[in-house]
Amino acid sequence: MPDAERATYREGELPSYAIVSPxxxxxxxxxxxxxxxxxxxxxxxQWVLVDDGSTDGTxxxxxxxxxxxxxxxxxxxxxxxxRSRGAAIVRAFDTGRARLTVRxxxxxxxxxxxxxxxxxxxxxxxxFARDPAAGVVGGVMLVPGGGGWRPDGAPHHVGGxxxxxxxxxxxxxxxxxxxxxxxxxxxxxxxxxxWRVHVLTELSVLHYKPRGSKQPWYQARWEEGRGNAYMxxxxxxxxxxxxxxxxxxxxxxxxxxxLAAGFVHARLSGAAQVDDxxxxxxxxAEQRARMRALLRGRRHVVAGGLPAGGPAFWFPAxxxxxxxxxx
Length: 327
Fold this sequence. Notes:
There is one protein chain. The protein is globular, with a radius of gyration of 20 Å. It folds into 2 domains: 17-213 and 305-313, Spore Coat Polysaccharide Biosynthesis Protein SpsA, Chain A; 217-295, no CATH class. The chain contains 10 helices and 9 strands. Strands 1, 2, 3, 4, 5, 6, 7, 8 and 9 form a 9-stranded mixed sheet that branches. It is an alpha/beta fold.
């Protein structure tokens, strides 16, 4: 749980952070992500790239970066598995985290098909400095669409490709779960233990490859359904989710059906569920609240948020640490 006493930072001082990036066949995106990290106004103490069986030039690019910068290192795994969005990614993250030579105040899981603005981690770390109960922080993810960029993901969750954790929070929740759904379980586990999740709505990250784009659509939807079962979704909420997918997402109808089929198969086959009762309880409480709001014709608003908004609304002279909301 968060400490009762907040950490104190001198003016302009920011928490240290380290990045772990599981990568597989990211030769196209890695140079762009690396350039955006090199441009950060608050640079990471370490960046560990975990090459998980790439078959293109990813490993060579990563090794060249490590040769040029002493705070970048590369770990290579065998990568003997099919491409997936759950267990393999978390195992690679854990491998990279074990290679960190210092214990940072903030640990970041970052994909390498992103572009993050130069002030990104300064703002993220300023949020951790300002709120001692901040456990998970990140910006808003934008993906290509409609001739421009559009928001992707739930507005009250930090996207899986760019998760920043207070390291004590990550330890408190027992690390990440090696399953599809890890990037939802982590936040519910954190909030159930008194940590806060902050989505900085004024801080955008470009994600060049939308969720599941590296898999056939049916595999991505099937794994998502199984991941929802792993997380402990209420069947009634899963049904609503599948219906929404059938009506509004591509491919129409069948995408939602495959998601529901993955969920039902996992439940009937006795597939493992997350071993965190607190996280499941927090998830189901939110789902029940959302369904009640829907029945009343209202939009469910997730409680929380930073007083007076995020870093874009803070004056440079504002001291780090909690700030009372305006009357």
